[in-house]
Amino acid sequence: MQGDQFTIGFTTTELAVTGEDSGQPVLRLSFDGSRDSLQELLRERLRDDISEEAVDVSFRSLSPIDKMGEGVLSLSDRVTGAYVLEIRTQREPILEFVHSVREYADRTGHEAAYRIVMQANAETVTVFEKTLLLVYDANGTLRRHASLIPSDIEL
To answer: How far is 111 from 104, CA to CA, in rounded Å?
Structure first.
């Protein structure tokens, strides 16, 4: 899937700002095309037997971490390593999203979790419930402190 066919949106917890809890953080991937086209693209890229747990989410910076810059958000098949989706985006919103997921977990006493909602024409096509989001620097080194890594995952 071409990343330029998607727009990334974030729904984070706004408790500190508004006083209202907006619920579990959501990473919204809006497809610039029809629902049928998105479903077809997903069928082409995802194995028939793939489970939601087998879809990994990662972000890799394209410039040194001490500079503001872009990176690539990727969804990939954990078993085959094949990329389902790659989207260029700014680094700062991803890091803010990770922070928001952690805040939500601390406030609710639940595991750090978030949703990925894939949409076309404002209609939800698929939803992934996720607990893992790996953040890498431009050299490919895992930035553990910037990542969401569940306690039951060993890297």
So the answer is: 9
State yes or no: pLDDT of 110 exceeds 90.
no
| 7: containing domain | 3-143
Between CA 147 and CA 59 the distance in angstroms is 9
Query: Does residue 14 belong to any structural domain of this protein?
Result: yes
Whether the pLDDT of residue 131 is over 50: the answer is yes
Long-range contacts (CB closer than 8 Å, 24 or more residues apart) made by 94-100? 94/59, 94/135, 95/135, 95/146, 96/10, 96/12, 97/10, 97/12, 97/25, 97/27, 98/133, 98/135, 98/146, 98/147, 98/148, 100/10, 100/12, 100/13, 100/25
Section 12-39 average pLDDT: 75
Determine, yes or no, domain membership for 154: no
Distance CA 155, CA 78 (A): 13
Is residue 32 situated within a structural domain?
yes
Whole-structure pTM value = 0.84
